[in-house]
Amino acid sequence: MSTTAGTASDIITTKPIKAFQDIDRSRFDDKNEERSVGDVNYGINEKLVRWISSEKNEPEWMLKKRLDGLKAFQELHMPNFGPSLKKLNLDEICYYRRADEEGNAKTWEDVPEDVKTTFEKLGIPEAERAVLAGVGAQYESENVYHKLKEEWTSKGVIFEDMDVAIQEHPELVKEYFMNKCVPIKDHKFAALHAAVWSGGTFLYIPKDVDVTAPLQAYFRMNASRGGQFEHTLIIIEEGAQAHYIEGCSAPQYGMSSLHAGCVEVFVKKGARFRYSSVENWSKNTYNLNTKRAIVEDDGIMEWVGGNLGSGVTMLYPCTILKGDRSRADHLSVAFAGDGQFQDTGAKVIHVGKETKSNVLSKGLSKDGGTSNYRGLLRILPNASGSQASVNCDNLILDRSSISCADPVMEIHEDSAEVSHEAKVGSIGEEELFYTMSRGLSEEEAIAMIVQGFIEPIVKELPLEYAVELNRLIELEMEGA
Length: 480
Description:
Elements: E1 2-4, H1 26-29, H2 46-55, H3 60-75, H4 113-121, H5 124-130, E2 134-139, E3 142-148, H6 150-153, E4 158-161, H7 162-168, H8 170-176, H9 188-196, E5 200-205, E6 215-220, E7 227-228, E8 231-236, E9 241-249, E10 257-259, E11 262-267, E12 272-280, E13 285-287, E14 290-295, E15 300-308, E16 312-315, E17 318-321, E18 327-336, E19 341-344, E20 347-350, E21 356-365, E22 370-379, E23 387-396, E24 402-411, E25 417-426, H10 429-436, H11 442-458, H12 463-476
Parallel strand pairs: 1-25, 2-6, 5-8, 6-9, 7-10, 8-11, 9-12, 10-13, 11-14, 12-15, 13-16, 14-17, 15-18, 16-19, 17-20, 18-21, 19-22, 20-22, 21-23, 22-24, 23-25
Antiparallel strand pairs: 2-3, 4-5
Helix pairs in contact: 2-3, 3-9, 7-8, 10-11
């Protein structure tokens, strides 16, 4: 095994950088009147779990999974690493909230007017008309809209919400749902998800089908003390290709909300899949998401993500390179401001021979925020010829903020080639002087340096999301 050691640098500016203004979240903080159907109950018990399953008219096997999840949730302990979850009161969360009797609309005109207005502000209809192959939109615990263009339906592509998929494709869902990728007992919040999951996306791409336009889903949590637990199940058959984009947001409240979704991706032999996401939950939200992919021979899995907004985030997309010559790319950026703890990273497990992985993580922190990279690279015995590169860069924008890197590497194969580099730094006086000498103000100079820092990630996002992420960070830095 050959290993290239990482380096660490810390360039301390002699000139303090002024505190940045809070982000203008006006598009995201617009909240509708809460109009849930039926009683709104807080906390979780067996009666609630059975009621959710009954409401959705689920088969007996899914109810059993939910009950197994509830039992595991009650037995498993809270995470003993990362940010504190002591202020998250799980008894004060509403685990299922149906916003309207209308259910899942197939035409945009059928969506309730206030819900439609919210998504129009977020750009969902415009995106569909412009470049997307299909769009799904979830509001609270239920999908309110789902549509796939006929071009892809005729080729056998399935793009539905999970509740519909269970009714129309039960055997396919039963085979993959929390069986092979994310087991129910994986951790406490995976078990909670299994018990109360609702909505989400089911995507199936048949063999050798190349979906040339991206598919998009957007998840919106409107109510206070809400919980959103969407399940995304994606199956990319042999030789197929697709790109899925996910966006998330919630308005700001004074009480905590919880997002504990789950993403399971299966990339078959010779297939290629990209999963892009920008998660912009409000600061009262605990974002405790689980994302994992299994890749077979010659398959390629790409994760591209941006994390902003949440008060606490614990998110570590994982790729299991099961097949020979399979590959994974993890590209991510996290931004932590006042009162935020972004604990994010990536996990890659090399099982097959001649597998390759590349992890590039960028973290920014300001106004006392904490941005932490937490990663795992595991190369198993007999994963001969494996190659892995991990690069985590952190930029501190003032003296009160924190950026850390906690990479773990478990290398059990002597022929593996592994490189790791971790850098922590701040914007120095020389960088500012050089940039400002080109005629820029100090604020413009700082913005340009930050944009250059995150550019390797942003350029991989779809255009509308790249613009969105750049604008969000730009707003964070106004007045710097």
